[in-house]
Specification:
This protein is mainly α. 56% of the residues lie in helices and 3% in strands. The protein is built from 16 helices and 3 strands. It has helices spanning 35-41, 44-53, 59-71, 77-84, 92-107, 119-146, 161-170, 176-188, 196-205, 211-222, 230-241, 247-256, 274-290, 295-311, 320-330, 338-359; strands at 19-22, 27-30, 33-34. The protein has a 3-stranded antiparallel sheet with strand order 1-2-3. Strand 2 (27-30) and strand 3 (33-34) form a beta hairpin. Helix 6 runs antiparallel to helix 16 (338-359), helix 8 (176-188) crosses helix 16 (338-359) and helix 10 crosses helix 16. The protein is globular, with a radius of gyration of 22 Å.
């Protein structure tokens, strides 16, 4: 009998050359490039192309890709109408899954991908990747206005991806610090090996389902609080704790009740997530420039310190979601939009894995260890007690 490993922990599900994690040293690299260097020196457009194509582009290729993205930002009137018909009180991740899935009705899914995966497919995959990466940002930003009863802000083709996203989200031209921080956040969340949502995308892709179905599967998976949904929970948790002096009693109570501490722990990292280190610095940079340190951040620092003494021995440290929510909060972004913003970024990694999966596809079909009843005879309903 094959060994069963719950959660497939440590089980390789694929071969991939897109990203790598060294969980002991706390290193994340995209195509060999360290995340810290990318967050400092790259931009989302370049990082997305690196993930898709495998190499840092030259300036002509980057310019071309950037122009393609700018040209694909608008969403159809009918998609906006679908969004308008959704309840404003629903979670934005439900909206996002619905809206992305609805694009499949307009751009078609069936019969385009072939099992042999030729150059025609590669062309299609690239075009769809551009279309979805560009539109994901527009849809998330548009929802902020639609759910408040307003018309969405039209995308601006003269702005970068991060700049335009913040502009569409807030209706205000963002300042350079806001753009740089959002750009770095989009870079840092863009890819993370075979995480749950990427795996969901790969499973769906392995059936040769089209891209809108693939991404819709990934969005649904990202929404869960054990995955991308954790960034929203972190801020709600810090609000509940209130002040640094409340941390100790609150933590003792939660651990006693065997509850998880949101934004802490990771299957792959046994040290602090390198992205958490960068995000923490960004919160401080933001506070510096804006002239105030938020009480929420002080509570987060106190909680991290308290957790380290208790959970450090289990290798449980802050993950990417621990400080990202605080940063977004400080930037005035509504809490329930944190996970959709994660998707605005992770779409680059999902599309890269979609492409990689198709290039050497075999349908995912694992086995199971049956724990049910042995064979037995059917009992007519009148004879059942
Ligand atoms: N709070 C408290 N204890 C935690 C913890 C957390 N956030 N994360 C892990 N642990 C503990 C577990 O209880 C377990 O303890 P035990 O050995 O005494 O039973 C040990 O650390 C190992 O954790 P495990 O549940 O095996 O880790 P996993 O790899 O299955 O799960 C996560 C990983 C991310 C799902 C888990 O750490 C978690 O739930 N974190 C909070 C949610 C979150 O922030 N998710 C975003 C991830 S980027």
């Amino acid at each position: 009998m094959s060994e069963y490993l719950p959660g497939l922990a440590g089980v390789p599900a694929t071969k991939s050359n897109i990203s790598s994690i060294d969980g002991e040293k706390g290193i994340l690299a995209y195509r060999g490039y360290d995340i810290q260097e990318l967050a400092e020196k790259s931009n989302f457009e370049e990082t997305a192309l690196l993930l898709l194509d495998g190499e840092l582009p030259d300036s002509a290729a980057l310019e071309d890709f950037d122009q393609q993205l700018r040209g694909e930002r608008k969403i159809k009137y009918h998609v906006r109408e679908i969004m308008r018909n959704l309840p404003a009180t629903g979670h934005p991740m439900e909206m996002l899954q619905t809206a992305i899935s609805s694009l499949g009705m307009f751009y078609g899914n069936a019969g385009i991908l072939t099992e042999s995966y030729g150059s025609e497919d590669l062309y299609y995959v690239h075009n769809m990747s551009v279309k979805i990466i560009a539109r994901m940002a527009t849809i998330v930003a548009a929802w902020e206005h639609v759910r408040n009863g307003y018309d969405p802000i039209e995308p601006r083709p003269d702005m970068t991806h991060a700049e335009n996203f913040m502009y569409m989200l807030t209706g205000v031209e963002p300042d350079p610090l806001t753009v740089r921080i959002m750009d770095a956040c989009l870079i840092m969340h863009a890819e993370h090996t075979i995480n749950a949502s990427t795996f969901a995308a790969m499973v769906c892709a392995s059936t040769l389902a089209g891209p809108f179905r693939v991404i819709s599967a990934a969005i649904g998976t990202l929404a869960g609080p054990l995955h991308g949904g954790a960034n929203q929970r972190v801020v709600e948790m810090l609000d509940e704790i209130g002040r640094p002096e409340n941390v100790k009693d609150w933590l003792d109570m939660k651990l006693e009740e065997k509850e998880v501490i949101w934004g802490m722990g990771h299957r792959e990292y046994k040290t602090k997530d390198p992205r958490a280190i960068i995000l923490q610095k960004m919160v401080m940079e933001w506070a510096d420039k804006k002239g105030n340190l938020s009480p929420m951040f002080e509570t987060a620092l106190a909680l991290e310190e308290a957790c380290e003494t208790i959970l450090g021995s289990k290798g449980v440290y802050p993950n990417v979601d621990y400080y990202s929510g605080i940063l977004y909060s400080e930037m005035g972004i509504p809490t329930d939009q944190f996970t959709p913003i994660f998707a605005v970024s992770r779409i680059a990694g999902w599309m890269a894995h979609w492409r990689e999966q198709l290039s050497d596809n075999r349908i995912f079909r694992p086995t199971q260890i049956y724990t049910g009843h042995p064979p037995r005879d059917y009992v007519p309903i009148e004879q059942r007690s």
